[in-house]
Amino acid sequence: RKEGERSVAVHCSMFLAALSFAYFAKALSGSYMKSTITQLERRFDISSYLIGIIDGSFEIGNLLVIAFVSYFGAKLHRPKIIAFGCVLMSFGTFLIAMPHFLIVRASVNSSNLLSPCLPGIAPYYYFSDCDRDSGVSMWIYVFLGNLLRGIGETPVQPLGISYIDDFARPENAAFYIGTYTTLLLVFYIYTHLKNSDYYPRDARWVGAWFGYIISGVVTLMSAVPFWFLPKSLPLPRLMRLILRSDLKSRKYDFVPTLKSLLGNPVYILYLCVTIIQFNSLIGMVTYKPKYIEQHYGLSASKANFLMGNINIPAVALGMFSGGVIMKKCKLDIMGAAKFAFGTSLLGYFLSLFFFAMGCENARVAGITVSYTGYFLSQLYERSLYADCNSGCSCSRREWDPVCGRNGITYVSPCLAGCTATSGAGKNTVFERCRCVALPDALPLNLTAALGQCPRGDSCEQVFPYFLALSVLSSFIISLGGTPGFMLLVRCIKPELKSLALGIHTLATRTLAGIPAPIYFGAIIDSTCLKWGYKPCGGRGACRLYNTSAYRIVYLGLTLGLRTMSFFLCILGFAILKRHIRMEKKSSLAEGSAEQESLKKEESSEQFILALKCNADRETRL
Question: Which residues form the Kazal-like domain (predicted)?
């Protein structure tokens, strides 16, 4: 028996390693996708709303096959189904990288198109071959690739976790799943970028696509171990007999099974709570790098670097620690529910301090401040023209920001009144900028450099506190992740496990994964102050946000959704207590029934023995 248990533990560890590597590969491409949201907006000139639709295509792919995979996958060879899904994920990741090879490198990334002030010349728009050069329609490759990734990822979580939970000892399942969800979050990749004439802080910067190629190769490699894993793990003889007798008595009719699952009030309420919290989580995670970039003035690369190297490891450590705590403390269902609720509530209160960690709007001439440096009472694109650039024939459509020596950002060198340039590429300096007002400065010293001006010292001082609080709150909230997930596994019958996990994934993907990035993006778009324009005309991506409004709607929506979930949690505790009492009563009733049946068997055996004794006595007589 001990050898059988040791064999099960070894095989569970092997499967866990393969599953963790598969989810690492999935998380690698998924996190890279979210980290390039700002780059996708710039490359395809699309709004955050449309980016939300592209991001939600992953969940749409899940939605297409999740019910089929979860119900029928439990009866088939689960490791091979996961392997096939990994192959699909890799193909989808390669498809996302296709636009990089199909689109000619955009000529707008050259500093030669940055027009200085040219008096008496009307603005010229580059509309020739705009359909070919803009690559606007190429975002469909990203949409389809992400859709294919969603289809391929579908079997990994429900079949993988049910496989572990079926063959692991109950007290070790939480530790295995905690380890698995920890490695789910350990993802970050550094890609070597080619030398360029521009740099990440430049508004025209479009990041590299090589991460998709690397993550696609890693995902393809993750499929290999699953082709060699068995359909089921070896079990001790006693456990095999129990499973065989259970399988014979189990009914696989889909409708009665689904009816039994949906009739569980604890499961339904758990589903509602997780849907609301996933809306908050997915919307927050999708746009958090963009929030850091827009609010604190960091470049996209640095914002994603901080997310990948500081925030995400804290979440991974929290998930792992939660699994260890549940194993060491041997938490039951109620204990796991209380622990998950307590950590989530504590993280919620810590997150309220984010409202106080704000920065003022960027000082952009004609949008947030006047050309003399005074803040405008109403923020919108209304006064880009001033006396200093009145004779320059500048376009309002351009967004090529330059930073003046006075600390004010100008929408373009032309609107800054610059009439000369020096240097090349990212070292370009615009000179004789009439709108750059400095006291007692010679016209030659009125210069501007590429990119937006950095935020003030107060904003730089606030950001470390924001980062520290973000790490702390993420760690505390993630502590309850594994106990909360084990609550889902333990509140249902074992034969309904795969279907319950599949329905849970289906519901969260459909009602959270798809809509959350879309309506978060639409609300964020409402705070835009300066829209870009596509090469062929029409509104493009947002170039400048009202950071105060952005902070209020982003944090307010995130925490508002979590507030709603807490009210449902209070109701859930009452239902869970009743559920536990009913289970205890039913187990006691079953125990008394078993005792009565045993007594009847004993009495019948005694009766047979008595008859046998009487027969022997009569024979002797």
Answer: 382-437
Among 484, 489, 482, residue whose Cα is nearest residue 341: 484
Strand residues in 546-590 grouped as ranges (E): none
User: What distance lies between CA 186 and its chain's CA centroid?
Assistant: 13
Is pTM, for the whole model, over 0.70?
yes
Find residue 410's DSSP bridge partners.
402
- The answer to whether the beta carbons of residues 410 and 368 sit under 8 Å apart is no
Residues 307 and 166 sit within 8 Å (Cβ to Cβ): no
Residues of the chain with confidence (pLDDT) below 50: 106-112, 126-129, 131-134, 171, 173, 176, 184-202, 204-207, 236-251, 607-621
Q: Provide the H-helix boundaries in 352-490.
A: 457-479, 481-490
Q: By C-alpha distance, which of 345, 323, 341 is closest to 181?
A: 323
Cα–Cα dist 6/39, whole Å: 50
548, 361 in Cβ contact below 8 A? yes
Q: Which SS3 state, helix, strand or coil, does residue 359 take?
A: coil
DSSP 529: E
Residue ranges in 441-546 assigned as alpha helix (H):
457-479, 481-490, 497-508, 515-525
Cα 147 to chain center, whole Å?
Answer: 15
Q: Quick one: DSSP state of residue 452? A: P
Answer yes or no: are the C-beta atoms of 544 and 365 closer than 8 Å.
Answer: no
Could you tell me the domains of the chain?
2-360+456-577 (1.20.1250.20), 363-454 (no CATH)
Closest CA to 1 of 313, 236, 242: 236
- Which residue from 70, 92, 67 is spatially nearest to 81, judged by alpha carbons? 70
Residues 14, 205: Cα–Cα separation, whole Å: 43
